[in-house]
Amino acid sequence: MPVIAAAFAMMATSASWQASAQPVIRLGGASGGFGTADSPHTRPSLIARTDAAHRGGAVEFALRLQLNPEWHVYWVNPGDAGLPPKLRWTLPEGVAVSDIDWPVPRYQKDDHGLVTYLYEGDVVLPLTLTLDNGFAGDRVELVADATWLVCREACLPGRARLTLDLPVVDSAPVEAEATAGLFAAADARRPVSGGTDAVRRVDDPPGRFSLDIHASHLGALGGGEVAARIMPVDPGLVDESARHPASWSVDGILRITAPRADAAAAPPNARGFVELRRGEHTQLFRFGPQPADPSH
User: Fold this and answer.
1) Nearest CA to 235 among 112, 7, 81?
2) Residue 6 maps to a domain
3) Number of domains into which the chain is organized
4) How far separated are the first and last CA of the chain, in Å rounded?
5) 211-263 per-position pLDDT tens digit
6) Domain carrying residue 137
7) 127-183, pLDDT tens digit by residue?
8) Beta-carbon contacts of residue 195 (< 8 Å; ≥ 6 apart)
9) 275-to-218, 267, 283 alpha-carbon distances in Å
10) Are residues 168 and 139 in the same domain?
11) Which of 118, 174, 183, 235 stands 20 to 30 A from 82 (CA)?
């Protein structure tokens, strides 16, 4: 589609934009919508989970994208179309920022079988800020050039230069009341259940990819019929448009099996999310190598 092609082209030229003047981000009109020419249908910002940064420690903050109704942005693996949000940082000496700790997205398959992984509404994408013990100064300012693609029937590129300025303290800061609810909502879509040992890879023959989870990790989902979805970080790990059936063994192991996109064996470092559902109950797991701890 010409609109989507134009959007991708603008995203590809973001580096040249970053040297230009900073856009002004404003709220939309009386309808409550967001958007400017540089930030269509979106209000971007950086928000902090705590009221300060921690000298010699780590605190959480996030890229927040407030989207107009019916518009969406994409996960790190967008699926068959789209591009994920990206951040390019300008940081003071002694400051480090992690990659985004992506929440589990919403899986969507359209009438043509095309798969996408989406975020809608008030999107909070967490990161970790770490300050060296020797960080000098009583404040720290983060500057990020952000780009993203926002879509409904058509897709539009968004971009903004964002800043976050925090006081620096020498002890653990307290949680900021103004953003507590936003981070709690993001936590609900992060795969914390069961820890890193909950999900086990299965030595499948080529053409399949399987994961095992013991019932002891599944709480209310244990022992019953479960709907499953494997969401790979790296495209091509599984056939993302196919069903990913889950079945129980006699010794209480839930096995989730997805067809591979080709007949090759799955790579040993494959990673992603598993979403399990039954009725109103949902559990989220992470599989594969875990993200590095940004505080070390």
Assistant:
1) 81
2) yes
3) 2
4) 45
5) 999 998 988 888 789 999 999 999 999 999 999 999 999 899 999 999 998 88
6) 2-187
7) 999 999 999 999 999 999 999 999 998 999 999 999 999 999 999 999 999 999 999
8) none
9) 12, 21, 6
10) yes
11) 183
How far from the centroid of its chain's Cα atoms is residue 119's Cα? Answer: 8
Residue type, 17: W
Residues 150, 277 within the same domain: no
Asked if the model's pLDDT at residue 185 lies above 80, the reply is yes
Q: Are residues 26 and 81 in the same domain?
A: yes
Q: Is residue 141 assigned to a domain?
A: yes
**Buried b vs exposed e over 196-223: b needs ≥16 C-beta within 10 Å?**
eebbeeeeeeeeebbbebbeebbeebbe
* CATH code of the domain containing 18: 2.60.40.10
Spell out the alpha helix ranges (H) of the chain: 2-12, 14-17, 180-187
Question: Domain ends where: 152, 187, 222?
Answer: 187
Residue ending a domain, choose from 155, 187, 219? 187
Alpha-carbon distances, residue 109 vs 196, 235, 251, 271 (angstroms)? 29, 15, 34, 21
What φ, ψ does residue 86 adopt, rounded to 5°? Answer: -135, 150
| Reported pTM | 0.86
Residue 194 lies in a domain: no
Owner of token pair 């006699």: 250
Residues 251 and 271 in one domain: yes
